[in-house]
Amino acid sequence: MQAWIANEQDVRLSEVPEPTLKGGGVLVEVLAAHVPAYTNAVVRGNRGGLPVPLVLGPSCVGRVLAVAPDVFHVEPGDIVLDTALLDAGGGDEVLVGWVGLGGSGAGSARTDRMRAVWRDGVFAEKALCAKETLVKLPGAETYPDPARLAFLPWLCIAATGLHAAAPVAGRDVAVVGATGQLGGAAVLTALAEGAATVTAVGRNEEALARLAALGPRVRTHRLTGDRADDAAGIGPVDIAVDTLGATPSAAATMAAYDSLRVRGTLVLVGGVRHDLTVPYGDLMHRRLTLRGSWMSDDRTVTTVWQLVRSGALDLSVVELVTAGLDDPAAALGLAERTTGLGFVALVP
Ligand SMILES: NC(=O)c1ccc[n+]([C@@H]2O[C@H](COP(=O)([O-])OP(=O)(O)OC[C@H]3O[C@@H](n4cnc5c(N)ncnc54)[C@H](OP(=O)(O)O)[C@@H]3O)[C@@H](O)[C@H]2O)c1
């Protein structure tokens, strides 16, 4: 079969043997896989170590072809979401086929063993997935546009972040970095879950305009770079979700912190690589909560899928750009340029 193999510095289309079933494994036909906008940065090694060489790709929507004898929660013919997250407990978590380790992020002898057994990802015609990474999507067999479901993993990551500050219904939410894919996913999820208002915050004016067009509950704030001005433009809100990429400073994140109402919650979901200076007395007197959120859990996957299936979360507002396996470099470039309520789905 054909697959994208990541090496030290690049990704190449290669002919590789089809994966064979092993204990705890599920063989899936990859229907569509989201190519994250920052995949080029991942391949260049700017986001942590990849255990190269490997089949790249963190998550996909697939059809189950075969299951190992010890797999009971899915069966051939099921449509499933692969979340990539393999969790051994105690902070030892890996993303199969991708960068990122749970816990302290440093990894351990156990995560090394996990990555040795479950190494390959999903940017391929077929994938052998650890059973723990798969959640069944009942009824997805009849979803009219399966490639669009490749956006589910980002929606689920965003929803898991929002749920860390639950309840969402009836509350004012801000998404800082709303112009990115994770942020756009957070805006859509917050609207679907009944937020009173959603303030979409980012730099890209065109992306902000698209978000504003989602409906009257959406407000926008264009980041100025000045913390006080941005805080005033964002808030006051009950929940702020930070989905920013690698920014040069923590100013926008701290503006989100400043924008919180008393008893508000700031959830960190993005890729900011700076320490936050949080004033002890302020956090205490305003009774604020600071939460982190990483990847998604099975219950949230089911909730988000039901929102999509019911039409409460309408995926037709997201621009879908498809790419095949034939030219990885072109697809990664396209993914980098396709953000702001748009995403690239690899359809092998
Ligand atoms: N916690 C988790 O489980 C999890 C899971 C997946 C991803 N992530 C992280 O989430 C981050 C965002 O992912 P994504 O897919 O949404 O990426 P993306 O589509 O590339 O979006 C990046 C966002 O960051 C903003 N941004 C980038 N540089 C900026 C700067 N200098 N100043 C202000 N804003 C800046 C962009 O704003 P403009 O477009 O307006 O310029 C955009 O809103 C990634 O870094 C990733 O590491 C976390």
Number of strands: 18
Number of helices: 10
Instruction: Based on the coordinates given, report the CATH architecture of the largest domain.
Output: Alpha-Beta Complex
Helix content: 25-40%
* Main sheet summary: 7 strands, mixed
- The CATH class assignment of the largest domain is Alpha Beta
> Any idea what the shape is?
globular
Overall number of domains:
2
- Average pLDDT: 96
What distance lies between the first and last C-alpha atoms, to the nearest angstrom?
Answer: 10 Å
> What's the CATH superfamily of the largest domain, by name?
Medium-chain alcohol dehydrogenases, catalytic domain
SSE order, one letter for each helix or strand: EEEHEEEEEHEEHEHEHEHEHEHEHEHE
Q: Class by helix and strand content?
A: alpha/beta
Bound molecules: NADP nicotinamide-adenine-dinucleotide phosphate
Output the radius of gyration: 20 Å
CATH third-tier fold name of the largest domain: Quinone Oxidoreductase, Chain A, domain 1
Which regions have little confidence, pLDDT < 50, spanning 5+ residues? none
